[in-house]
Amino acid sequence: CPLPSPLERLALPHILGFLLNVPSRVTLGTLALPVSRPHWVGVRRLGRTFYNLDSKLAAPAAIGAEPQLREFLREALSRGPSELFLVVPRDVEEAGTWLSPE
Average pLDDT of 51-68? Predict the structure, then answer.
């Protein structure tokens, strides 16, 4: 039986939000250059819906519920060198309950 991926093990009810550092294409006006640079993206849950708070968007964009969030994170992290930071309350961090047991 294969082990669940780290994204599948995230205990989403204990996590307040996410910060992603992902590659972003560099543009000059409408011209996209063949270069990328790191870009920070925030994700936050409101109610049962997660929202993409990327500053490059005109407004926050609904991602959806937990399954859609996991797919959003999987896709974002697959684009190249990237990092994922979890935003959790201190008690969750200290107890390590942001991650479900295997």
Answer: 95
